[in-house]
Amino acid sequence: MNSAQDKRQTPDDHHDQEVSVVVSGCPEEDARTVFDALRAAFTTDRSSADVPHEAEGKRPTAWSATVDVSEARVISGSVTLGVPVTVDVQGGYRAVDRLREGLADAFAVRVVGTVSGDQEEEVRLRLENK
Quick one: pLDDT at residue 15? Predict the structure, then answer.
């Protein structure tokens, strides 16, 4: 057997379980609430000490994280946002679905836009209070 065949990726490889998340257009307190919920549900590259802060000036601020959805945890109960939050997520189809399902434990989640690719999709989610 060819060693290159042994090393080919499967759909369950770690990379296929990562989702890129961008939160923008909301107050920093709501961005923190979203990242806290993501940390409660999944493993992320954003520590709890990494608190979102508004950038100075009139430019919009965007906060990002990479989320590993391979091991989901249940968020116990809903959380409160000050305003509805828009979240852009990008990753494999199954990974994006798992992220959306995890967020649904804490928020009312609505898909407001999608762009589909060959192996990945980009989805715009609207998070609101339950």
Answer: 59
Q: How far is CA 43 from the centre of its chain?
A: 10
pLDDT digits (tens, 9 = 90+) for 60-69: 678 899 999 9
Residue 87: which residues within 8 A CB-CB, separation 6 or more?
A: 21, 22, 23, 34, 103, 124, 125, 126, 127
Q: Where are the domains of the chain?
A: 14-69+78-128
Task: Report phi then psi at 93, rounded to 5.
Answer: -55, -50
**Pick from 126, 89, 129: nearest CA to 106:** 129
